[in-house]
Amino acid sequence: MIVCVCHRVSDRDIARHVRGGMDFSDIQLELGVATQCGQCESCAREIVAQCSATSPVAAIHHERAGCGGGAGCACAAGGPAA
Ligand code: FES
Fold first, then answer.
1. From the CB of 37, is ligand 1 less than 6 Å away?
2. Would residue 49 count as lying in a domain?
3. CA-to-CA distance for 43 and 70, rounded, in angstroms?
4. What is the 48 CA–ligand 1 centroid distance (Å)?
5. What is the tens place of the pLDDT at every residue in 5-24?
6. Coil, strand, or helix at residue 2?
7. What is the pTM of this model?
8. Half-sphere exposure of 64 (CA within 13 A, CB side)
């Protein structure tokens, strides 16, 4: 799913950078997310939070499921998407 239309950044791009150790500010600089119109900022921040180092297992589930961990993601509801 494309999160940032202005810079064509997907949820998977963001998740990959979080797993690489970047925080939201790093990702903003690297990918340009939330640096133009700003409409994507809350969604991008949510993805960063969901995929942060505090929940690496959830990030793995999101990657395997290809769900991106969005609002409708079964992983976010507490169960991994099979
Ligand atoms: S949609 Fe991300 S800056 Fe516009």
1. yes
2. yes
3. 8
4. 16
5. 999 999 999 999 999 999 99
6. strand
7. 0.67
8. 11
Q: Whose CA is nearest to atom 2 of ligand 1?
A: 4
CATH code assigned at 12? 1.10.10.1100
- What atom of ligand 1 comes closest to residue 32's alpha carbon? 3
For residue 2, list its beta bridge partners. 10
pLDDT of 80 strictly over 50: no
36 lines ligand 1 (CB under 6 A): yes
Identify residue 49 by its one-letter amino acid code. A
pLDDT tens-place string over residues 31-71: 999 999 999 999 999 999 999 855 555 555 666 666 655 55
Q: Number of structural domains, the chain?
A: 1
Q: Is residue 76 part of a domain?
A: no
From 30, 31, 39, mutation site for ligand 1 pocket: most ligand atoms within 8 A of C-beta? 39
Name the residue range of residue 48's domain: 2-54
Tell me, yes or no, whether 27 lies in a domain: yes
